[in-house]
C-alpha cells in the first residue's frame, strides 16, 4: 500500500504535512473553546512552545461538545461564535485549525473555516457524518471509535474514498476494556497504517476513564508520557493532546487535559523518539517480519 | 469401450465468460470475494485492474492454506484486500489454445480453474475443469 502524505492548511496559514518520513506533527489546544480570550491565550502559549521546539502544529478546539455525559456540563460556545474565534486565531497566528462536528448540518460551516475537520470517535462509522466531512474537501481527522477494531476502520476509509476524500488522518484514542476503562493496543498503529493513511495518537483521551465519575469522565493523566513515547516509537505521524493552562478549571475534560506546564517536556521527548525511529528506519529498513513464516 | 475425445475444441468454445464467473476489483475485501465465489459456485475469483487486466487470482485452496497459517482474528482477515492473499502471476491460457492442452495443463498443475486472457493479459473468462472435461469427453456439447 502506497503511503499517503496529507497537507493541512489552506490560504496563507502554515502548511503542515503529515505522513511517512515527515516531522512529527502536533495537534493540540483546549478541548472546548471556553472564551475568545482563553482560546487566544492557549494558541499563543502552545505556539511559543512549538516554535521553540520547531514542531509543526495545528490548533484544535471545539465549539460544541455534543457527547457530554451530563446535560449540566458545558456544551460549548456554539457554531457561529466558535468558528469565528477559530477563524480569528488562523488570521492572528497563521496557524491551521481543526475542530470536530457532531451533526452533519455543521460540516459545511466547519470546513469553510477549518483547515481540517474532525470526526468524533463515537461517530466514526456514521455514513452521513463521513459523507458531510468528505463534502467539505478538507483533510479529515478520523478517530477510531473506542468500540472499533483497528482493521474495521477500513470500512470508514472505504466510505470516505467513495465520497471522494483521500486526505485522512486516522487516530487512536483507546479501546474499551469492559466498562469505564480504556486500553491502548499499540498494534493499532501498524494495522491502521496498512490503509496507507497517516496515523495519529490521541494521548489525552487515551488515558480517559469514560464516565467513571458517574456523570463525567475521569482520567489518569500520569500515564500520558509513557503512552506518548510508546506510540511515537510505534511510528505515529502525528500526536494529539488537549492542553489547558488550568486543568482544574477546564470547562471540558478537566480530568484528562494536560497541564500546559508539561507540554514542552512531553513534546521534546516525542520529537526525539520520532527522529530516532526515522534514523532506525534509515539504518535498518522498514519492519518486515512476515506474518506467515 | 473407447472414448472419442474432442481434441480440436478450443478454449474459447468452452470457457465461462467474465459475466459468468467471479471477477472483482483490486479494492474488494476478502469477505466480499468469498461471497462472490459462493454466488457463482466457483472456487476461483479473478482480480482485475480498472482496465480489465488480470492482476491476481484467489482460489479456495489459497484461502484454505491461509486459514491454517494466519494467526490474526478472522474479522481482521476478512477485511484484508483480497489482492493481498492472491496469486499474482497465475497460470493462464488463451482463447485460441486447444482445450486438450488446457486440461493437460490443469492436470499437471493440479488446478480446477484457469483464467483465460488475451495477448495483453485482459481477462476474457475462466476455463472450469468440470465443463472442460465434459466437453473433451463428448459428454456435453
Work out the radius of gyration of chain A: 18 Å
Largest interface: A-B, 9 and 12 residues
* Strand and helix order of chain B: EEHEEHHHEEH
The third-level CATH topology of chain B is CBS-domain
Cα(first) to Cα(last) distance of chain B is 20 Å
Rounded mean pLDDT score of chain B = 94
Largest sheet of chain B: 3 strands, antiparallel
Low-confidence stretches of chain B: none
End-to-end Cα distance of chain A: 21 Å
Strand content of chain A: 15-25%
Query: How many structural domains of chain A?
Result: 1
Strand order of the largest sheet of chain A: 3-4-5-6-7-8-11-14
CATH topology of chain A: TIM Barrel
Quick take:
The complex is a heterodimer of chains A (293) and B (141). Chain A has 293 residues and is an alpha/beta fold.
Q: Could you list some keywords that capture this structure?
A:
heterodimer, A: 293 residues, alpha/beta, TIM Barrel, 8-stranded parallel beta barrel, two-stranded antiparallel sheet, 9 helices, 15 strands, 34% helix, globular, B: 141 residues, alpha+beta, CBS-domain, 3-stranded antiparallel β-sheet, 3-stranded mixed β-sheet, 5 helices, 32% helix, 19% strand
